[in-house]
Amino acid sequence: MHKQWSDVNALYQIYPRSFQDSNADGVGDLRGAIARLPYLKGEPDSLGVDAIWFSPFFTSPMADFGYDVSDYCNIHPLFGTLEDFKELLDKAHERDIKVMIDFVPNHSSNEHPWFLESKSSKDNLKRDYYVWADPKPDGSPPNNWLSIFGGSAWEWNEQTGQYYLHTFLKEQPDLNWDNPAVRQEMQAVVRFWLDLGVDGLRADAVRWISKDVHRRDDPRNPAFNAGPQADEFGSLLHVHSRFGPNLFKYLRDLTDIVAAYDDRIMIFEDYPDDIFTTRDQYLGFYGVNPKVSMPFNFEGIGIPFGAENYRRFITEFQGMLNPSEHTPVYCFGNHDQQRLASRVGEEQARVVALMQMGLPGLPVVYYGDEIGMKNGLIKPSEIQDPVELRKPGLGQGRDPERTPMQWDDSVFAGFSTARPWLPIAHGAEKRNVAHESKDNDSYLTLYQDLLQLRTDYTIFQKGDYETFGEADANVYVFSRRLGEEHIFVVLNMSGKRRKFTLPHGGRLLAATHPSRIVAIAKDGKVKLRPYEAAIFECAKHPLREVL
Ligand code: NOJ
């Protein structure tokens, strides 16, 4: 019996370049990932995760490390072949691991055959596959829209005398989703991968697929403070260049395809932002097709660590959802964000892990976070990310969180026998899978314990969420309830010792330091150390194990 998505304990994100190299070229690949499947699930010392998501491994000139796709239905030779992928899929499925791929609908590579045709002449049949516009009379770009990666979002094409739109790099021209032929092409891509047997797709940068059809200027942001460190992108309110009128309709068409297959899902990439209320955004995305699609919740990435901050955003978010319809997807790290342990601190990262795994829905773990990996230190000569290369020194580059997975204490951390494409982060001699597997108190042991709980008890995926007790600036407590079952997640988010009283006493299920027994006194009182968190079963409402 294979698990359904609704029972999956967590989704593990693999950045394929950095997970495991099998052919000594310093870049991770699919055969490397196949070799590491036993780490993920099915062996006594596995991490024990039920699903994996791969960032892009498609054919690409790699201007944005694969988020610039030149063939949506093939694999870049650096990563292997379609046959390798099929083998990966089969072997993952044998272990009952679901496999999700990345899908990049907003833009292709500028080397995609569609774009090569499109830019060749104004009357080419593929001209309208992309967004082209005439210059203003003075020759400047058609409007003031900005690229996220810097400068105008419009690039001049001399040959045809028009500009094309690129929300990201100029090597990533935006596809014109208002053209039905483009929508059909992209729907065919989704079908191709679903037919091959993938269990889901993570859809990149979806908020941009629909834009203002009149291409009006984005208004200036009155709150913008220009300064040497300011990111020009913040100078505008991006109300016309994204979240266009057809966004949810286009997504609905895509997800209708997903819904036609058995137990497949699509997760939308979307960050909270100041312009559209969080509520509108979430409910908009959930409203698309709630049975099969849902947005990530990335709020925890931007919010400073702290009991009040987390309580507020999680409780507000849970309050918006209809628990019988909407699956929360809490995410505290990914390939675009500084490493969790570097952002919040090493002890604090354990608290976040326990909190995340105590919450409903489908949590997402970024590779390496389960061993507490920290940001890599990248020397100027080692920079790879185009964002850092374009805007050096702003600290926006994404190389630090993309360093190779740390498997052991060998020179290249067991990732490769050759020098890797990015350096191994400092501290890998101890912070690695081999070392942490032997340490009963490690991050890895903590994640294994938490994932095991989510495997054994469906209350974690499906139970109701409620905050518990007085709101406290140091301790965030929530309870989960499923029928007669009841658990408490108690998180001391301060650097001080704190107490909490369980209403009916209970049993310890997990703690941030797995080897420590957090004692429960007769009166239900528990004492938590600084940055200590634990999950307790209520003595009066015990759990029933999943059979
Ligand atoms: C979001 C992806 O996560 C990021 O890595 C990429 O650069 C942009 N979208 C463009 O595809």
The chain-level mean pLDDT equals: 96
- How many beta-strand segments? 19
What is the approximate shape? globular
Determine the N-to-C terminus distance.
Answer: 12 Å
- Which structural category do the helix and sheet elements fall into? alpha/beta
CATH class of the largest domain: Alpha Beta
Bound chemical compounds: 1-deoxynojirimycin
Radius of gyration, in Å, reads 24 Å
CATH topology assignment of the largest domain: TIM Barrel
Q: What is the CATH superfamily label of the largest domain?
A: Glycosidases
Strand order of the largest sheet: 11-10-9-5-2-1-12
Number of helices: 15
Describe the structure using short key phrases.
binds 1-deoxynojirimycin, TIM Barrel, Oligo-1,6-glucosidase, domain 2, 19 strands, globular, alpha/beta, 15 helices, seven-stranded parallel beta sheet, five-stranded antiparallel beta sheet, 547 residues, Immunoglobulin-like
In short:
This protein is α/β, with parallel strands linked by helices and 547 residues long. The protein has helices spanning 30-35, 37-40, 82-94, 113-118, 180-196, 247-259, 278-288, 299-302, 307-320, 340-344, 346-358, 386-390, 433-437, 443-456, 459-462; strands at 11-14, 51-54, 58-59, 71-75, 98-103, 132-133, 154-157, 162-165, 200-203, 265-268, 293-295, 364-366, 464-467, 475-482, 485-492, 498-501, 506-511, 525-528, 533-538. 1-deoxynojirimycin (NOJ) is lined by residues 64, 67, 104, 168, 204-205, 269, 335-336.
